[in-house]
Design a protein that fits this description.
about 475 residues; mainly beta; Jelly Rolls; 3 domains; 14-stranded mixed sheet; seven-stranded antiparallel sheet; about 40% strand; globular
Protein backbone atom coordinates (compact mmCIF):
# COMPACT_ATOMS: atom_id res chain seq x y z
CA UNK A 1 0.00 0.00 0.00
CA UNK A 2 1.36 3.47 -0.94
CA UNK A 3 1.74 6.41 1.41
CA UNK A 4 -1.27 8.01 -0.35
CA UNK A 5 -3.36 4.92 0.42
CA UNK A 6 -2.24 4.80 4.05
CA UNK A 7 -3.14 8.44 4.67
CA UNK A 8 -6.52 8.17 2.95
CA UNK A 9 -7.39 5.06 4.91
CA UNK A 10 -6.33 6.76 8.15
CA UNK A 11 -8.68 9.62 7.30
CA UNK A 12 -11.55 7.18 6.76
CA UNK A 13 -10.69 5.34 9.98
CA UNK A 14 -10.59 8.60 11.96
CA UNK A 15 -6.97 7.96 13.02
CA UNK A 16 -5.26 10.73 11.05
CA UNK A 17 -2.79 12.80 13.09
CA UNK A 18 -2.26 16.53 12.56
CA UNK A 19 1.07 15.95 10.78
CA UNK A 20 -0.49 13.28 8.59
CA UNK A 21 -3.35 15.66 7.76
CA UNK A 22 -0.79 18.24 6.59
CA UNK A 23 0.85 15.65 4.35
CA UNK A 24 -2.47 14.44 2.91
CA UNK A 25 -3.52 18.03 2.26
CA UNK A 26 -0.36 18.66 0.21
CA UNK A 27 -0.83 15.42 -1.69
CA UNK A 28 -4.41 16.32 -2.63
CA UNK A 29 -3.33 19.79 -3.66
CA UNK A 30 -0.53 18.69 -5.97
CA UNK A 31 -1.60 15.25 -7.30
CA UNK A 32 -4.78 15.10 -9.39
CA UNK A 33 -4.80 11.28 -9.42
CA UNK A 34 -4.59 11.19 -5.62
CA UNK A 35 -7.41 13.73 -5.46
CA UNK A 36 -9.73 11.61 -7.60
CA UNK A 37 -8.77 8.48 -5.67
CA UNK A 38 -9.63 10.30 -2.43
CA UNK A 39 -13.06 11.30 -3.73
CA UNK A 40 -13.84 7.79 -4.96
CA UNK A 41 -12.72 6.29 -1.64
CA UNK A 42 -15.02 8.60 0.27
CA UNK A 43 -17.78 7.78 -2.19
CA UNK A 44 -17.49 4.06 -1.51
CA UNK A 45 -17.12 4.55 2.24
CA UNK A 46 -20.23 6.68 2.53
CA UNK A 47 -22.31 4.37 0.37
CA UNK A 48 -21.39 1.51 2.71
CA UNK A 49 -22.16 3.78 5.66
CA UNK A 50 -25.59 4.50 4.20
CA UNK A 51 -26.37 0.79 3.80
CA UNK A 52 -25.46 0.11 7.43
CA UNK A 53 -27.53 2.86 9.03
CA UNK A 54 -31.11 4.00 8.85
CA UNK A 55 -31.49 7.37 7.26
CA UNK A 56 -34.11 9.50 8.98
CA UNK A 57 -35.52 12.96 8.42
CA UNK A 58 -33.28 14.92 6.10
CA UNK A 59 -30.92 11.99 5.63
CA UNK A 60 -28.01 13.14 7.78
CA UNK A 61 -26.06 10.63 9.86
CA UNK A 62 -23.66 12.18 12.37
CA UNK A 63 -21.13 9.83 13.90
CA UNK A 64 -20.67 10.28 17.64
CA UNK A 65 -16.89 10.11 17.59
CA UNK A 66 -13.90 12.42 17.51
CA UNK A 67 -13.04 13.15 13.89
CA UNK A 68 -9.57 13.13 12.41
CA UNK A 69 -7.84 16.50 12.19
CA UNK A 70 -9.68 18.57 9.61
CA UNK A 71 -7.60 19.01 6.51
CA UNK A 72 -8.93 22.50 6.03
CA UNK A 73 -7.19 23.63 9.21
CA UNK A 74 -3.79 22.40 8.11
CA UNK A 75 -3.35 24.49 4.98
CA UNK A 76 -4.89 27.76 3.87
CA UNK A 77 -6.65 26.89 0.60
CA UNK A 78 -5.27 28.47 -2.56
CA UNK A 79 -7.82 29.78 -5.04
CA UNK A 80 -8.07 27.87 -8.27
CA UNK A 81 -6.20 24.82 -6.95
CA UNK A 82 -8.78 22.06 -6.75
CA UNK A 83 -6.69 19.81 -4.60
CA UNK A 84 -6.36 22.14 -1.63
CA UNK A 85 -9.90 23.44 -1.96
CA UNK A 86 -11.31 19.94 -1.94
CA UNK A 87 -9.20 19.23 1.10
CA UNK A 88 -11.03 22.07 2.81
CA UNK A 89 -14.34 20.51 1.82
CA UNK A 90 -13.75 17.25 3.62
CA UNK A 91 -14.70 18.85 6.94
CA UNK A 92 -18.17 17.44 6.33
CA UNK A 93 -17.01 14.11 4.92
CA UNK A 94 -15.40 13.23 8.24
CA UNK A 95 -18.78 13.25 9.99
CA UNK A 96 -21.51 12.40 7.49
CA UNK A 97 -22.49 10.47 4.39
CA UNK A 98 -24.09 13.64 3.07
CA UNK A 99 -22.15 14.21 -0.13
CA UNK A 100 -22.74 10.91 -1.83
CA UNK A 101 -26.31 10.00 -0.98
CA UNK A 102 -28.11 8.87 -4.16
CA UNK A 103 -29.60 11.65 -6.28
CA UNK A 104 -31.93 11.82 -9.22
CA UNK A 105 -30.89 12.96 -12.66
CA UNK A 106 -31.95 16.53 -13.48
CA UNK A 107 -35.20 17.04 -15.33
CA UNK A 108 -34.93 18.46 -18.88
CA UNK A 109 -36.69 21.66 -17.81
CA UNK A 110 -35.71 22.27 -14.19
CA UNK A 111 -37.82 24.36 -11.86
CA UNK A 112 -36.03 25.75 -8.83
CA UNK A 113 -37.99 25.22 -5.63
CA UNK A 114 -36.76 27.87 -3.23
CA UNK A 115 -38.92 26.38 -0.47
CA UNK A 116 -37.27 22.98 -0.70
CA UNK A 117 -35.37 22.31 2.52
CA UNK A 118 -33.25 19.44 1.24
CA UNK A 119 -29.70 20.80 0.69
CA UNK A 120 -28.03 20.07 -2.63
CA UNK A 121 -24.57 21.51 -2.04
CA UNK A 122 -22.10 22.74 0.54
CA UNK A 123 -20.10 25.98 0.59
CA UNK A 124 -16.49 24.81 0.82
CA UNK A 125 -14.35 27.92 0.35
CA UNK A 126 -14.50 31.72 0.22
CA UNK A 127 -11.81 34.12 -0.97
CA UNK A 128 -12.69 37.81 -0.46
CA UNK A 129 -16.25 36.94 -1.46
CA UNK A 130 -18.91 39.67 -1.28
CA UNK A 131 -22.50 38.48 -1.79
CA UNK A 132 -25.42 40.55 -3.11
CA UNK A 133 -28.87 40.75 -1.48
CA UNK A 134 -27.90 38.30 1.24
CA UNK A 135 -28.80 39.48 4.76
CA UNK A 136 -26.80 36.61 6.26
CA UNK A 137 -23.96 35.63 3.92
CA UNK A 138 -23.32 31.88 3.77
CA UNK A 139 -20.36 30.57 5.75
CA UNK A 140 -17.83 27.88 4.88
CA UNK A 141 -19.35 24.52 5.71
CA UNK A 142 -22.89 25.85 5.32
CA UNK A 143 -25.47 23.71 3.54
CA UNK A 144 -27.04 25.21 0.43
CA UNK A 145 -30.61 24.42 -0.73
CA UNK A 146 -31.72 24.93 -4.33
CA UNK A 147 -31.59 28.64 -5.10
CA UNK A 148 -29.43 31.52 -6.22
CA UNK A 149 -25.94 32.66 -5.28
CA UNK A 150 -25.17 36.23 -6.36
CA UNK A 151 -21.54 37.19 -5.98
CA UNK A 152 -20.50 40.83 -6.28
CA UNK A 153 -16.75 40.14 -6.13
CA UNK A 154 -14.21 37.58 -4.93
CA UNK A 155 -14.49 33.82 -5.22
CA UNK A 156 -16.81 31.22 -3.74
CA UNK A 157 -16.52 27.46 -4.04
CA UNK A 158 -19.43 25.03 -3.87
CA UNK A 159 -19.35 21.23 -3.68
CA UNK A 160 -22.53 19.51 -4.92
CA UNK A 161 -23.82 16.33 -3.30
CA UNK A 162 -22.61 14.43 -6.36
CA UNK A 163 -19.01 15.47 -5.64
CA UNK A 164 -18.80 18.06 -8.46
CA UNK A 165 -16.93 21.17 -7.33
CA UNK A 166 -17.40 24.62 -8.85
CA UNK A 167 -15.58 27.90 -8.32
CA UNK A 168 -17.47 31.14 -8.96
CA UNK A 169 -15.55 34.35 -9.68
CA UNK A 170 -17.52 37.53 -9.12
CA UNK A 171 -19.45 39.30 -10.31
CA UNK A 172 -21.47 36.13 -10.91
CA UNK A 173 -25.01 34.78 -10.72
CA UNK A 174 -25.42 31.05 -10.24
CA UNK A 175 -28.45 28.87 -9.43
CA UNK A 176 -28.20 25.53 -7.68
CA UNK A 177 -30.93 23.43 -9.29
CA UNK A 178 -30.24 19.97 -7.87
CA UNK A 179 -27.53 17.76 -6.37
CA UNK A 180 -25.76 17.46 -9.74
CA UNK A 181 -27.20 20.40 -11.64
CA UNK A 182 -26.70 24.17 -11.79
CA UNK A 183 -27.48 27.20 -13.93
CA UNK A 184 -25.06 30.03 -14.75
CA UNK A 185 -26.44 33.37 -15.92
CA UNK A 186 -23.39 35.61 -15.44
CA UNK A 187 -19.77 35.51 -14.29
CA UNK A 188 -16.80 33.18 -14.49
CA UNK A 189 -17.31 29.55 -13.58
CA UNK A 190 -14.74 26.77 -13.12
CA UNK A 191 -15.67 23.13 -12.55
CA UNK A 192 -13.94 19.94 -11.51
CA UNK A 193 -16.09 16.86 -12.03
CA UNK A 194 -14.77 13.53 -10.72
CA UNK A 195 -16.06 10.26 -12.12
CA UNK A 196 -18.80 9.79 -9.45
CA UNK A 197 -20.36 13.09 -10.61
CA UNK A 198 -20.28 12.22 -14.32
CA UNK A 199 -23.31 13.82 -15.98
CA UNK A 200 -23.00 17.09 -14.02
CA UNK A 201 -25.19 19.56 -15.90
CA UNK A 202 -24.96 23.33 -16.29
CA UNK A 203 -27.71 25.34 -18.01
CA UNK A 204 -26.75 28.56 -19.79
CA UNK A 205 -28.75 31.40 -21.34
CA UNK A 206 -30.40 30.87 -24.76
CA UNK A 207 -31.44 27.28 -23.90
CA UNK A 208 -27.86 26.03 -24.03
CA UNK A 209 -26.81 23.16 -21.79
CA UNK A 210 -23.46 21.60 -20.86
CA UNK A 211 -23.27 17.98 -19.72
CA UNK A 212 -19.96 17.02 -18.23
CA UNK A 213 -18.47 13.60 -18.98
CA UNK A 214 -15.81 13.71 -16.28
CA UNK A 215 -13.49 16.69 -16.69
CA UNK A 216 -12.36 20.17 -15.77
CA UNK A 217 -13.80 23.10 -17.67
CA UNK A 218 -14.27 26.84 -17.45
CA UNK A 219 -17.03 29.17 -18.64
CA UNK A 220 -16.38 32.90 -18.93
CA UNK A 221 -19.53 35.01 -19.11
CA UNK A 222 -18.01 38.23 -17.79
CA UNK A 223 -19.57 41.53 -18.87
CA UNK A 224 -18.02 43.32 -21.80
CA UNK A 225 -16.35 40.27 -23.38
CA UNK A 226 -17.20 37.34 -25.62
CA UNK A 227 -18.70 34.46 -23.65
CA UNK A 228 -16.34 31.51 -23.91
CA UNK A 229 -15.91 27.95 -22.73
CA UNK A 230 -12.71 25.96 -22.44
CA UNK A 231 -12.15 22.30 -21.57
CA UNK A 232 -8.94 21.64 -19.66
CA UNK A 233 -9.31 17.89 -19.18
CA UNK A 234 -11.74 15.25 -20.38
CA UNK A 235 -14.86 15.87 -22.46
CA UNK A 236 -18.10 17.85 -22.26
CA UNK A 237 -21.23 17.77 -24.39
CA UNK A 238 -22.82 21.05 -25.52
CA UNK A 239 -26.52 20.95 -26.40
CA UNK A 240 -28.57 23.81 -27.85
CA UNK A 241 -31.94 24.00 -29.69
CA UNK A 242 -30.44 23.40 -33.13
CA UNK A 243 -27.76 20.85 -32.40
CA UNK A 244 -25.13 19.41 -30.13
CA UNK A 245 -21.34 19.05 -30.05
CA UNK A 246 -18.61 17.37 -28.03
CA UNK A 247 -15.73 19.53 -26.83
CA UNK A 248 -12.50 17.87 -25.68
CA UNK A 249 -9.48 18.92 -23.63
CA UNK A 250 -7.35 21.65 -25.14
CA UNK A 251 -10.23 23.23 -27.10
CA UNK A 252 -12.39 26.28 -26.53
CA UNK A 253 -15.33 27.94 -28.25
CA UNK A 254 -17.34 31.16 -28.20
CA UNK A 255 -20.85 30.83 -26.74
CA UNK A 256 -23.30 32.75 -28.96
CA UNK A 257 -27.09 33.19 -28.64
CA UNK A 258 -27.62 30.92 -31.67
CA UNK A 259 -25.21 28.25 -30.44
CA UNK A 260 -21.48 27.74 -29.84
CA UNK A 261 -18.88 28.84 -32.36
CA UNK A 262 -16.35 26.50 -33.90
CA UNK A 263 -14.13 24.56 -31.52
CA UNK A 264 -10.58 25.89 -31.80
CA UNK A 265 -7.37 24.82 -30.05
CA UNK A 266 -6.17 26.94 -27.19
CA UNK A 267 -3.44 29.08 -28.72
CA UNK A 268 -0.93 28.88 -25.87
CA UNK A 269 -1.26 26.10 -23.31
CA UNK A 270 0.08 27.27 -19.95
CA UNK A 271 1.51 24.60 -17.65
CA UNK A 272 3.13 24.72 -14.23
CA UNK A 273 6.69 23.37 -13.82
CA UNK A 274 5.22 19.99 -12.79
CA UNK A 275 1.87 19.58 -14.49
CA UNK A 276 -0.32 17.43 -16.74
CA UNK A 277 -2.76 18.67 -19.39
CA UNK A 278 -4.26 15.83 -21.40
CA UNK A 279 -1.41 14.05 -23.21
CA UNK A 280 1.13 16.75 -22.33
CA UNK A 281 3.18 16.88 -19.14
CA UNK A 282 5.93 19.00 -17.63
CA UNK A 283 8.50 17.66 -15.19
CA UNK A 284 11.11 19.87 -13.55
CA UNK A 285 14.22 18.51 -11.89
CA UNK A 286 14.80 19.24 -8.21
CA UNK A 287 11.36 20.77 -7.70
CA UNK A 288 9.35 18.83 -5.13
CA UNK A 289 6.80 20.96 -3.22
CA UNK A 290 6.60 18.51 -0.31
CA UNK A 291 10.29 18.83 0.53
CA UNK A 292 11.21 22.22 -0.93
CA UNK A 293 12.65 24.93 1.33
CA UNK A 294 10.72 28.10 2.05
CA UNK A 295 10.87 30.83 -0.55
CA UNK A 296 12.70 33.23 1.82
CA UNK A 297 15.53 30.86 2.81
CA UNK A 298 19.12 31.58 1.80
CA UNK A 299 20.20 28.02 1.01
CA UNK A 300 21.18 28.08 -2.69
CA UNK A 301 18.02 26.15 -3.58
CA UNK A 302 14.84 27.13 -5.38
CA UNK A 303 12.21 27.87 -2.73
CA UNK A 304 8.54 26.99 -3.07
CA UNK A 305 5.53 29.14 -2.26
CA UNK A 306 1.86 28.28 -2.70
CA UNK A 307 0.33 31.24 -0.89
CA UNK A 308 2.14 34.52 -1.54
CA UNK A 309 0.97 37.22 -3.91
CA UNK A 310 3.38 36.12 -6.64
CA UNK A 311 1.78 32.69 -6.61
CA UNK A 312 -1.75 34.09 -6.89
CA UNK A 313 -0.99 37.00 -9.23
CA UNK A 314 -3.66 37.56 -11.83
CA UNK A 315 -7.05 36.05 -12.59
CA UNK A 316 -9.72 36.03 -15.23
CA UNK A 317 -8.09 34.35 -18.23
CA UNK A 318 -7.44 30.72 -19.08
CA UNK A 319 -3.70 31.22 -19.48
CA UNK A 320 -3.22 33.14 -16.24
CA UNK A 321 -5.48 30.99 -14.09
CA UNK A 322 -3.71 27.80 -15.19
CA UNK A 323 -0.55 29.03 -13.43
CA UNK A 324 -2.09 30.05 -10.11
CA UNK A 325 -1.22 28.31 -6.89
CA UNK A 326 2.56 28.07 -6.91
CA UNK A 327 5.77 29.89 -7.76
CA UNK A 328 9.44 28.93 -7.48
CA UNK A 329 11.76 31.57 -6.08
CA UNK A 330 15.50 32.31 -6.30
CA UNK A 331 16.51 34.88 -3.68
CA UNK A 332 19.52 36.48 -5.35
CA UNK A 333 19.07 39.45 -3.02
CA UNK A 334 19.98 37.18 -0.09
CA UNK A 335 23.05 35.82 -1.85
CA UNK A 336 21.47 32.69 -3.33
CA UNK A 337 22.80 31.16 -6.52
CA UNK A 338 20.57 28.06 -6.97
CA UNK A 339 21.39 25.45 -9.62
CA UNK A 340 19.97 25.56 -13.12
CA UNK A 341 16.61 23.81 -13.48
CA UNK A 342 15.51 21.64 -16.39
CA UNK A 343 11.83 21.41 -17.36
CA UNK A 344 11.02 18.51 -19.69
CA UNK A 345 7.89 18.89 -21.83
CA UNK A 346 6.64 15.43 -22.85
CA UNK A 347 3.80 14.16 -25.02
CA UNK A 348 4.62 16.37 -28.03
CA UNK A 349 4.21 15.33 -31.67
CA UNK A 350 7.54 14.88 -33.47
CA UNK A 351 5.84 15.79 -36.75
CA UNK A 352 5.13 19.33 -35.52
CA UNK A 353 7.12 22.40 -34.55
CA UNK A 354 6.43 24.30 -31.32
CA UNK A 355 6.94 27.74 -29.86
CA UNK A 356 7.90 27.51 -26.19
CA UNK A 357 7.40 30.25 -23.59
CA UNK A 358 8.46 30.85 -20.00
CA UNK A 359 6.16 32.49 -17.42
CA UNK A 360 7.67 34.56 -14.64
CA UNK A 361 7.10 37.51 -12.29
CA UNK A 362 8.68 40.96 -12.52
CA UNK A 363 8.59 44.07 -10.32
CA UNK A 364 8.28 47.58 -11.74
CA UNK A 365 10.74 49.03 -9.18
CA UNK A 366 13.26 46.16 -9.05
CA UNK A 367 15.20 43.89 -11.40
CA UNK A 368 13.45 40.55 -11.09
CA UNK A 369 14.40 38.25 -13.95
CA UNK A 370 15.18 34.72 -15.13
CA UNK A 371 17.23 33.19 -17.93
CA UNK A 372 15.99 30.35 -20.11
CA UNK A 373 16.84 28.35 -23.23
CA UNK A 374 16.85 24.88 -24.77
CA UNK A 375 18.81 22.30 -22.83
CA UNK A 376 22.14 21.43 -24.43
CA UNK A 377 22.08 24.32 -26.95
CA UNK A 378 25.73 25.34 -26.66
CA UNK A 379 25.51 27.75 -29.59
CA UNK A 380 23.12 30.18 -27.92
CA UNK A 381 23.23 31.83 -24.52
CA UNK A 382 20.18 31.72 -22.26
CA UNK A 383 17.55 34.34 -23.04
CA UNK A 384 16.95 36.96 -20.36
CA UNK A 385 13.34 37.01 -19.19
CA UNK A 386 12.77 40.49 -17.81
CA UNK A 387 10.45 43.50 -18.20
CA UNK A 388 10.51 43.14 -22.00
CA UNK A 389 8.29 40.05 -21.87
CA UNK A 390 4.58 40.29 -22.68
CA UNK A 391 2.54 41.39 -19.64
CA UNK A 392 -0.41 39.11 -18.87
CA UNK A 393 -1.56 40.29 -15.45
CA UNK A 394 -0.75 42.72 -12.67
CA UNK A 395 -1.76 43.27 -9.09
CA UNK A 396 -1.74 40.53 -6.51
CA UNK A 397 -1.05 42.25 -3.20
CA UNK A 398 1.17 44.84 -4.85
CA UNK A 399 0.58 47.21 -7.75
CA UNK A 400 4.22 46.73 -8.79
CA UNK A 401 3.94 43.03 -9.64
CA UNK A 402 3.58 41.76 -13.21
CA UNK A 403 3.04 38.27 -14.60
CA UNK A 404 4.92 38.00 -17.90
CA UNK A 405 5.47 35.54 -20.73
CA UNK A 406 8.52 35.36 -22.98
CA UNK A 407 9.14 33.14 -25.95
CA UNK A 408 12.42 31.24 -25.61
CA UNK A 409 12.10 28.79 -28.54
CA UNK A 410 10.64 29.32 -32.01
CA UNK A 411 9.65 26.49 -34.36
CA UNK A 412 11.35 23.93 -32.14
CA UNK A 413 11.22 20.25 -33.19
CA UNK A 414 10.71 17.66 -30.41
CA UNK A 415 13.02 14.71 -29.96
CA UNK A 416 11.19 11.49 -29.06
CA UNK A 417 8.13 13.55 -28.16
CA UNK A 418 9.86 15.94 -25.78
CA UNK A 419 11.61 19.29 -25.50
CA UNK A 420 13.78 20.27 -22.54
CA UNK A 421 14.15 23.84 -21.30
CA UNK A 422 16.82 25.10 -18.89
CA UNK A 423 15.72 27.72 -16.33
CA UNK A 424 18.32 29.71 -14.41
CA UNK A 425 18.29 32.64 -12.03
CA UNK A 426 19.73 36.05 -12.93
CA UNK A 427 23.25 35.06 -11.85
CA UNK A 428 23.62 38.24 -9.77
CA UNK A 429 23.90 37.75 -6.01
CA UNK A 430 23.67 40.12 -3.06
CA UNK A 431 21.82 42.74 -5.07
CA UNK A 432 18.85 43.77 -3.01
CA UNK A 433 16.64 44.36 -6.05
CA UNK A 434 17.25 41.04 -7.89
CA UNK A 435 15.11 37.93 -7.51
CA UNK A 436 13.81 35.19 -9.81
CA UNK A 437 10.19 33.93 -9.86
CA UNK A 438 9.47 30.95 -12.14
CA UNK A 439 5.78 30.17 -12.80
CA UNK A 440 5.71 27.73 -15.70
CA UNK A 441 5.96 26.88 -19.39
CA UNK A 442 3.78 27.84 -22.36
CA UNK A 443 3.35 25.57 -25.39
CA UNK A 444 2.12 26.76 -28.77
CA UNK A 445 1.84 24.73 -31.99
CA UNK A 446 3.73 26.47 -34.77
CA UNK A 447 2.28 26.86 -38.25
CA UNK A 448 5.30 24.99 -39.61
CA UNK A 449 5.76 21.22 -39.68
CA UNK A 450 8.86 19.36 -38.58
CA UNK A 451 9.90 18.65 -42.19
CA UNK A 452 9.91 22.37 -43.07
CA UNK A 453 13.33 23.94 -43.72
CA UNK A 454 14.93 25.14 -40.50
CA UNK A 455 14.95 28.97 -40.35
CA UNK A 456 18.37 30.55 -40.53
CA UNK A 457 17.65 32.47 -37.34
CA UNK A 458 15.52 30.79 -34.69
CA UNK A 459 16.15 33.55 -32.18
CA UNK A 460 12.78 34.51 -30.67
CA UNK A 461 11.48 37.97 -31.66
CA UNK A 462 11.61 39.10 -28.01
CA UNK A 463 15.42 38.99 -28.05
CA UNK A 464 15.32 41.58 -30.80
CA UNK A 465 13.21 43.95 -28.73
CA UNK A 466 9.62 42.90 -29.59
CA UNK A 467 7.17 41.52 -27.09
CA UNK A 468 5.54 38.11 -27.51
Amino acid sequence: MSMHDDLMQAFIDQTLSVDEADTLNRNLRDDDEALEQFIVLNHLHTLLHERMHTVQGSGFIIQEQTPSPMLSDSVKPSPKRWGSLLAAAVLALAATAWFFLPHENPAPNPVIDHQQSQPVALLTNLDDAVFIDTPTPPAIGGELPPGELRLKSGRAQVMFKSGAVVDLIGPAEFYMVGPNHGRLTAGVFEAFVPEPARGFTIDLPHAMRIIDLGTRFRIDMADGADHRMRVTEGTVQLIWPNGQRTLTAGYQCVLRPDGPGDAVPVKILAMKPNDTRGPLSTTTTALTPDSAPAAADNDNAWGFSAANEQAQLGAGSFEVDALAGQVWVARNDLGENPPRLTTVIAGLDDARRYNIYVYYITHTLQHWQLRAGRTGDVNKSLIVCDDSGAQLASGGNSDELRLRRRRVLTDAVPAAGSISIDIDDAGMTYREDVRGFYKGIGIEISDKHADSPTPADQTPPETRGANS
